[in-house]
Amino acid sequence: MRRKLSFLITLWWVILCGAIGACMLLFAGKTPVVSEEENRTLAGMPAISFSALKSGGISESFESFLTDRFFLRSELVDGANALKHVFSALTVDELLNAEGDEVFVPADEPVTQTAQEATQTQQEDATQPEEDDQQEQAATTTTVTGDTASVWLNHRDGTRTALQTYSKDDIQKAATVLNQYAALLPVGGKLHVMLAPRAQSTNKFALHLDTESGWSSEIESALQPLVSKNVVLHSAYDILQEPILNGDYVYFRTDHHWTARGAYLAAEAMLKSDGYQTVPLKDYSEKTIEGFLGSIYLHNRNAKLNDLADQIEVFLPLLPAKSYRVSNAYKKNELPVIDETKTNYLVFLGGTTGPYRVLEGGYHTGRNMLLVCDSFGNSIAPFFMPYYDDVYMVDFRDEYYTRRDAADGVKAYIRRLNISDVYIVLSETNGIGTMYLNQYLPENIN
Fold first, then answer.
1. How far does the chain reach from its first CA to its final CA, in angstroms?
2. Which pTM value belongs to this model?
3. Residue 416: which domain range?
4. Which of 20, 108, 296, 435 could bond 100 through an S-S bridge, CB–CB 3.0 to 4.6 Å?
5. Mind giving me the DSSP string for 357-390?
6. CB atoms within 10 A of CB 180
């Protein structure tokens, strides 16, 4: 009797597991999908082929599919995380200082150059005269006088703490790269540079106004003697200090980016330095997305940050605007400017797309610009549209850019697209002393 009962129990478990497995195969999604909650692509059903079966690789792919797509998976993951963080000893400040993962954007299909484009490019290169009108930049021999340059958080008790510190060599390398880009511009063109903090740094100031009195940066003053005359350095710390002290919402709390309001203030300061009369922010139509938990939250998914959930202010373009993917200086498929299907930072431009992209705001100024950026550029780029015919963008990170898709270097793009000014807007993650500035920028010039 006991053996028979054991057999029945085992049989029912086998039947139950088989039924669950059959339901997963029948009703689970077969194609990969992007999970905004987990900031990655969930695996789809692997393609079954003789070669895959022979190599044994299908077992790992099939296991990933089962792991990612089982019934009520999202609810179980959220419940497990909530239970885990009940016993977490991390404070909110420690959680807010966590590394934030970049918002995921699905990879696009690689761009291929058509025969017509290749022929036209060759003709342009053959007939294009040498850039005699490029600005001649005197080689700088100035060196950094101090051993380091820092960004400081100033406390109300008169002391201060270094948020970031950069070596003399890092400053010198950055100046060299900036001068290389400044030399690509036509006469009268300017290179505007802004190195922005992430929210992890900003929160130490903005969320503690009772103990913090401000912040300051030595970076711009260290760079200034080293750069060419047409390089304009902008301190995000100076620009944003007063708004932060006034309680303005310029950075997210649970995401590492600045808000659209913070991006507007940065763009406004750069444009005003060039003599533009800027459009007030109140003239933009606005929509708001509530309950946003961003990249810092996604790093640990700690329930303690739920009370700090952000809202996303979205300022719509003043005129009907369009955006396109650009390869080999040619427009490709159309992209969103504001992606109203998204409820996270991807609402801005639909996320980063490479190799280049262009925003067309419907203005006729006779000037084009190039914005070299990381994802901080996605929320600031639309604010440049009223002042330039075309706002071109490029993000040199490997996830979004390949030289094969770009088909040419920045020097050629500036010439072929009639770029008047270049703006470099990078977060501290991709700024001084990083691979982005030290390697990606110079290697993609020619």
1. 82
2. 0.80
3. 121-443
4. 296
5. EEEE-S---S-EEEEEESTTHHHHGGGGGGG-SE
6. 18
